[in-house]
Write a structure and sequence with these properties.
- The longest helix is centred in the N-terminal third of the chain and has 18 residues.
- With 187 residues, this protein is mainly beta.
- The protein contains one helix and nine strands, in the order H-E-E-E-E-E-E-E-E-E.
- The chain has one domain: Porin (Beta Barrel).
- A hairpin with a 5-residue loop joins strand 4 and strand 5.
Length: 187
């Protein structure tokens, strides 16, 4: 599992860095520092991150999104490379085979690991998260609301244009969208 998360994070970092601004500064002597002293400056203890974004269209179990899901996330750094956060998402969809619609909400708690001690680029934050949440959905044909416990997995990258503003791209499992992107505010 740890190898899978690390591999996915490395792929996300390489993909995102090719799109990111070529002027991202590589920290000289980064790998000569001890692991404990290393940090590319994108995340550390006490950092607060708020993100809002849109998900890619998604389909499962005969349902598909009619509008892109909306995401909001907040994360707080508890160590230089570890954070805890909450995520919420709203999705609106329809059954492919009937007029039945649904309204879905996902709310969850995640623990994140940031690879800021491995990647020497000052503006790039690559991370992976795991946690659990609740998938709360309402179907229009009967008006029933159901809630299921849901495992959550996320892998993503943030690129900062300034100390407090950036963009993010994230992929993972949450029943609303396979990928989402948006803006990030760091404080």
């Amino acid at each position: 599992m740890r190898k899978l998360i690390f591999s996915a994070a490395a792929i996300a970092a390489l993909s995102f860095s090719s799109v990111a601004d070529a002027s991202a500064q590589v920290i000289k002597g980064f790998y000569k520092q001890s692991y404990k002293a290393r940090n590319n400056g994108t995340f550390d203890k006490g950092t607060g991150i708020f993100s809002i974004g849109l998900g890619a269209p998604y389909a499962y179990g005969g349902y598909r999104n009619t509008l892109p899901p909306i995401y909001a996330k907040y994360e707080m750094g508890i160590m230089d490379e570890v954070g805890i956060g909450i995520v919420g998402g709203l999705g609106l969809g329809k059954n492919r085979y009937s007029d039945e619609g649904y309204f879905g909400t996902v709310v969850g708690l995640l623990g994140y690991y940031h690879f800021n001690k491995f990647i020497p680029l000052q503006k790039l934050d690559v991370y992976a998260g795991v946690g659990f949440g609740f998938d709360i959905h309402n179907r229009t044909y009967n008006g029933d609301t159901e809630a299921d416990v849901l495992p959550l997995f996320k892998v993503g990258a943030r690129y900062y244009f300034s100390n407090s503003f950036g963009v993010y791209l994230e992929s993972g499992y949450d029943h609303l969208s396979a990928a989402n992107l948006g803006i990030t505010l760091r404080f």
